[in-house]
Amino acid sequence: MEKTTLSLGKAVAFACLFLTTFSQAQVAKRHGDDEFIKIRVGFNSANGFHRQLLLGFMDDLATADFDPGYDAVQIDNQPSDLYFLLGDYRLVIQGVGHFETSSIFPLEVKTAIPGTIGFTLDDTENLAANVPVYIHDGLTNQYHNLLDGNLELFMPAGTVSNRFSLRFAIPLLLSTRQPDAGDGIVVRFANREHILNIRNNSPTNAINSVEVYDVQGQRLTSWIVKDQLQEQFPLTQVLSNGTYLIKVQSENGEVAKKILVENE
């Protein structure tokens, strides 16, 4: 016997879609009278917890601000978690207006223990097949399309609020920047001397600045090197073992290079 799902109003149905597991047939059936775009992004923590966020584009029924009935605040506090950030709100369900490829939805990641986390695309409804679903890493300025698979990366313990976001397009400036921005720039770290060595083999791609970040996105130090022939950058603070990001700003754009610090 065919199961009938009663409608309790679009706002209630929107929240229920997140809390209830539907079979493929039920989801397909609902698409017949619900054309809102919904995107479910998952988060796998290092300690085995899985969180699913729901983003819904509700056309004229919701806005970019907090809308009771369409936005749901996180209430089950977990040691490791993922939320949408909307001002002071931490949301597990976010309802907004019309779909726009230029929209950006900030994400906050909380990790109780260091380890590998994962971003996943759990499900989409009514989203065109050719629309990418990106996780943007503000630390590396890289875009990962979840349609191509999960994004996994190592994170230390802590809370990161300004590094990750959900997006649907790469900005035109980024996609059209010169492809040789990093050509000729070689970054090396001398562990014993604790010196950052940067060699620029391109006379037409001058280096303007160098910055060092940890994996949480915190800037540790920086140098302005425009019009200088500086190649060695001694670090005034001892870095603990781990991976760090070196951002080199050159005339052709920004280059991100990773280094591994292994103290003896």
Output the structural class. Answer: mainly beta
Unreliable segments (pLDDT under 50, ≥5 consecutive)? Answer: 1-32, 173-179
Alpha carbon gap, first and last residue: 69 Å
String of helices and strands: HHEEEEEEEEEEEHEEEEEEE
- pLDDT averaged over residues: 79
How many separate helices?
A: 3
Strand count, sense and closure of the main sheet?
A: 11 strands, mixed
The helix content is: under 10%
Q: What percentage of the residues does DSSP assign to strands (E)? A: over 45%
How many strand units? 18
| Bulk shape | globular
Give the radius of gyration.
22 Å
Q: What order do the helices and strands come in, and which of them pair?
A:
Blueprint: H1 10-19, H2 24-31, E1 37-44, E2 50-57, E3 72-73, E4 81-86, E5 89-96, E6 104-111, E7 115-125, E8 134-137, E9 142-145, E10 151-155, E11 158-167, H3 172-175, E12 185-190, E13 195-200, E14 207-213, E15 219-224, E16 232-234, E17 242-250, E18 253-261
Parallel strand pairs: 2-5
Antiparallel strand pairs: 1-2, 1-7, 3-5, 4-5, 4-6, 6-11, 7-10, 8-9, 8-11, 12-13, 13-16, 14-15, 14-17, 17-18
List keywords for this structure.
eleven-stranded mixed beta sheet; disordered N terminus; 264 residues; globular; mainly beta; 8% helix; four-stranded antiparallel beta sheet; 3 helices; single chain
